Amino acid sequence: LTAVVEGKAGAEELVLDTSSGLAIHRVELLQPGTAPPAPPSPLSHHWGEPHKALGRPLHIPLPSPQPLGSRVCLGVRFTTPPGSSALQWLEPSQTAGGQHPYLFSQCQAIHARALVPCQDSPGAKMTYTAKVRVPAELTALMSAVPDSEQDAAAAGGSLDKLPEVQPPYPTKVPIPPYLLALVVGELASRELGPRSRVWSEPSQVEAGAYEFADTASFLEAGEALAGPYVWGRYDLLLMPPSFPYGLTFVTPTLLAGDQSLTNVIAHEIAHSWSGNLVTNATWQDFWLNEFHASRGALDLAEDVARFGADHPYTRLVPDMTGGIDPDDVFSKIPYEKGFYLLYYLE
């Protein structure tokens, strides 16, 4: 990991979140752009106290107090264990094709820290560039756009001719850490419009292209309401049949055959503005992500009954001080209470 961070006035250390047993091998101060190139300088680091829900912070003292706006380039050599809470592994038997394994990540809400050392809070937005090495018969995709459309087109073409090191995936617009995403599998794609395509295993790609054919029109409708779409592309990934839920990764249960469930895609496209572009600073205010995207009413009774009518988790803004795992608080409540607040204000 090479991290370029912008310092606050007088900052003396960098603190990164980790969990799931990330192994830190070394930390270095990098000095890119110097002539002649300067070798990396080792930096000390130490662990903070572990927390059951939040993991273990990695403290990296900086070589000197940093002035406001200064930029420091650090290198962190680490290993992510296969059992990371951010990663899900499928056996070939769990895929539609039945021939190759499948890997996908799920970093929301606070699992990016189980994939890479980072400041894993929604308000700590970042850009990233990644290179991924995979077997030639598999394709890697990330929550970023490949360096060129030629590279992207190749990834959906002759899978047996793919290089082992896939083209870099850079983000141009800062994203919250929970949007960091990786998938590796036997994948093919079909175009849905000039800036969107659907990816899936080859046997499901045609069904996905039919089901989500209106994606381009949803994008145009979103721009009419909220302004330009700044992310370059909007691609859908249809997950294997054993995948139980969908975010930008789309669950195969949406393949109704009659395009009747594509309102889910409209909801996720709305997050291109509400959530991905304008993001809640903390998980206490998760409802700010959802209230614009939830323009329909669902029954709250199920979640209220699950928690109890007077439970603090049924509040629009729950109290999460003291280190509460956001996954424990998650429900339909911020979606629907947020929607009703917006409707009332309108």
Walk me through what this model shows.
- GO terms for molecular function: metallopeptidase activity; zinc ion binding.
- Residues 220-294 form the Peptidase M1 membrane alanine aminopeptidase domain.
- Its main location: cytoplasm.
- InterPro entries: Aminopeptidase_N-like_N, Aminopeptidase_N-like_N_sf, LTA4H_cat, M1_LTA4H, Peptidase_M1, Peptidase_M1_dom, Peptidase_M4/M1_CTD_sf.
- Belongs to the peptidase M1 family.
- The chain is of the alpha+beta class.
- It has 3 domains: 2-79, tricorn interacting facor f3 domain (Immunoglobulin-like, Sandwich); 87-243, 2-Layer Sandwich (Zincin-like); 283-345, Neutral Protease Domain 2 (Neutral Protease, domain 2).
- It is 18% helix and 24% strand.
- The protein contains 8 helices and 17 strands.
- The strands form 5 sheets. Strands 1-7-3-4 form a 4-stranded antiparallel beta sheet, with no helix packed on it. It has a 4-stranded antiparallel beta sheet with strand order 8-9-13-11, with no helix packed on it.
- Strand 14 and strand 15 form a beta hairpin.
- Helix 3 (215-226) packs parallel to helix 4 (263-270).
- The N and C termini lie far apart (45 Å).
- Residues 152-165, 242-247 and 295-301 have low confidence and may be disordered.
Termini separation: 45 Å
Can you tell me the residue ranges where pLDDT is under 50 for at least 5 consecutive residues? 152-165, 242-247, 295-301
Give the beta-strand count: 17
Give the helix tally: 8
Order of helices and strands: EEEEEEEEEEEHEEEEHHEEHHHHH
Q: How many structural domains? A: 3
Q: What is the CATH T-level topology of the largest domain?
A: Zincin-like
Strand numbers in spatial order across the main sheet: 1-7-3-4
C-alpha geometry? globular
The CATH first-level class of the largest domain comes to Alpha Beta
**Main sheet specs:** 4 strands, antiparallel
Structural class: alpha+beta
CA-atom Rg in angstroms? 21 Å
**CATH architecture tag of the largest domain:** 2-Layer Sandwich
Can you give the mean pLDDT? Answer: 82
Please indicate the percent range of residues in DSSP E strands (runs of 2 or more).
15-25%
The helicity comes to 10-25%
